[in-house]
Automatic annotation (TrEMBL):
Keywords: Signal. It comes from the Bacteria. The lineage of its organism: Bacteria, Pseudomonadati, Pseudomonadota, Alphaproteobacteria, Hyphomicrobiales. InterPro entries: AztD-like (IPR047697), Quino_amine_DH_bsu (IPR011044). This is YncE family protein. Residues 1-27 form the signal peptide.
Length: 411
């Protein structure tokens, strides 16, 4: 399989993802600047640090209730720190804001801050950013909250709650006026502390009423959006949702090819400037997914098990995969193959607890930030050469990480 993207369209997409304004487009009182910030959660301590990526200085340290997983909003204005073991979600204002002005965009930089608004509910696990809001899914609460970001930044709460039928480890994604919600097996026999398995996906309208039939998706786990599509990992294949107007989104199951080895996708990433998805396929393989291609799947084998992976938002054809041997691999999503690799950390085995401290990846200003919890470092690796250019010392065990920033005009 190759992604069904004509070369001219690809070049246009790549150009559109690079947001530097041409000097001739800027007025005399404009100055081009860039700003990048890292947000790093500690594995051992309930704390999140904001770090200036340019000089490595700590901009803020925020004490939380417990172990946090970080998710950036779609706008980059906020970062959500979900603490499922303590039933709470904190929100951090990043201080990075872009405003579009047609021929250029402005960049405004302000202080980072822990917002006064928190969200509480039984085991908030998945946070899904989308447009001007984020969806918090409470595994043991039987609900999902749709959070308005603009209200958040004003210190207010504007929440719309969606019923999730029954507590389960699931997810909810908005698509226009509809919400796509995972469905648990309500008849499954479970132990007192055990959640029921997921069996599918349903579409609900603004009134919370189901639209159409339940779409089968056994053990649904992992979601992503790309262009106007949403995708969900299933045992049978990848379930794709497309906008469908007044009748609601249209759901289509892309079945795994019959010649694929045993496995399935449980984590998905969505392309930003091109429409495609990248997912895991078991622990030592990844799969490129082209919903509109003649062949939907292309399987890529890794030398060892995957520790983390992500897509480069500014270089749309690049994906980065860190494997447990400490190698960082560059995936060319157009060619559908690994094009180079280099060792960036010592080995981190996947054996042990799923939440043991292992490296995580983020992309900032053409560089890859790699947390190295064993050595209290964030390693900065050049995305082109894969050579380490510097390190940022971070107290404790730096773990979950997100990068926020870019370039724009400053008045």
């Amino acid at each position: 399989m190759t992604l069904s993207i004509p070369p001219k369209r690809l070049l246009a997409a790549v150009a559109a993802s690079i947001v530097f304004a041409a000097p001739s487009a800027l007025a005399d009182d404009h100055e081009t600047r860039k700003a990048w910030r890292l947000f790093v959660a500690d594995h051992a301590q309930p704390v999140v640090r904001a770090i200036d990526f340019a000089d490595g200085k700590e901009l803020g340290r925020y004490d939380l209730k417990g172990h946090a997983t970080l998710t950036a909003s779609a706008s980059g204005l906020t970062v959500f720190a979900a603490q499922p073991d303590h039933d709470i979600v904190h929100v951090i204002k990043t201080g990075i804001e872009f405003s579009d002005h047609g021929e250029h965009r402005d960049l405004d930089v302000s202080d980072v801050a822990l917002l006064p608004v928190t969200f509480e509910g039984p085991r908030p696990f998945h946070v899904v950013p989308h447009d001007d809001h984020a969806i918090l899914f409470y595994d043991r609460g039987g609900k999902a909250d749709i959070i308005d970001e603009a209200a958040l930044l004003e210190g207010k709460t504007d929440v719309k709650t969606v019923d999730t039928t029954k507590p389960h480890h699931g997810v909810a994604v908005t698509m226009g006026r509809h919400v796509l919600v995972s469905v648990p097996d309500t008849e499954a026999e479970t132990k007192p502390d055990e959640l029921p398995p997921r069996v599918g996906l349903r579409v609900v309208d603004e009134k919370g009423e189901q639209v159409g039939d339940l779409a089968k998706c056994t053990d649904l786990h992992g979601e992503a959006t790309s262009a106007r599509l949403a995708a969900f990992g299933c045992k049978e294949g990848v379930l794709v949702a497309r906008p469908g107007g007044l009748d609601g989104p249209k759901l289509e199951m892309l079945l795994y090819p019959s010649d694929f080895p045993k496995g399935h996708t449980g984590t998905l990433l969505g392309g930003k400037a091109m429409q495609f998805f990248l997912g895991n396929y078991g622990e030592d393989k990844i799969v490129l997914i082209d919903p509109d291609g003649e062949d939907h799947f292309r399987l890529i084998e890794l030398p060892t098990r995957r520790v983390d992976f992500l897509l480069d938002p500014a270089t749309p054809r690049n994906g980065y995969i860190l494997t447990e041997d400490g190698d960082l691999h560059v995936l060319d999503v157009i060619k559908g193959e690994i094009v180079r690799k280099a060792k960036v950390t010592e080995p981190y085995s996947k054996d042990g607890h799923w939440r043991d401290p292992r490296p995580r990846l983020a992309v900032a200003d053409g560089q890859i930030a790699v947390t190295d919890p064993r050595h209290s470092l964030v390693r900065v690796v050049d995305a082109k050469t894969l050579k380490e250019t510097r390190t940022i010392a971070v107290e404790g065990q730096p773990f979950s990480i997100v990068a926020i920033g870019g370039s724009g005009a400053s008045h």
